[in-house]
C-alpha cells in the first residue's frame, strides 16, 4: 500500500480533491484528507526550513513561489539534492531525509 510520501507527491503534482488522490493510490479518503490537512497547516514552516537547510549545506536557497504545499515539496527536493551533493549517497532516499 502506498504511503503518505506517495500521496504528498500526487497531491502536489495533481491538485484536486483528496478523493481522487485516494482512489488513485488505493487509500481511504479520510487518510489522504488528514495527510493533506497536516501538510497544508505546516507547509510554510516546512518550505522555510528546507530552504534554510539548502543554505546551510552550501547551496542557494530555492525560489519559493506558488502554493505553500507544492513549494514545501520543491524546497524539500532542493535540500535533499544539496545534502547528497555535499554528504554523498549516505544521505539516503528523499523521504528518509525528509523524515529526519
Number-wise, the strands total 0
How large is the share of residues in beta strands?
A: under 5%
- SS-based class: mainly alpha
Main pleated sheet = none
**Global Rg:** 14 Å
Classify the helix fraction into a percent range: over 70%
Shape: globular
Write the layout of secondary structure elements.
Elements: H1 4-13, H2 18-25, H3 29-56, H4 68-87, H5 94-99
Helix pairs in contact: 1-2, 1-3, 2-3, 3-4
Characterization of the model:
The protein is mainly α and 100 residues long. It has one domain. It has helices spanning 4-13, 18-25, 29-56, 68-87, 94-99. α3 (29-56) crosses α4 (68-87). The protein is globular and about 40 Å long. The relative contact order is 0.13. The model has no long low-confidence stretch (mean pLDDT 84).
Keywords:
100 residues, mainly alpha, 0% strand
Brief overview:
This protein is mainly alpha-helical.
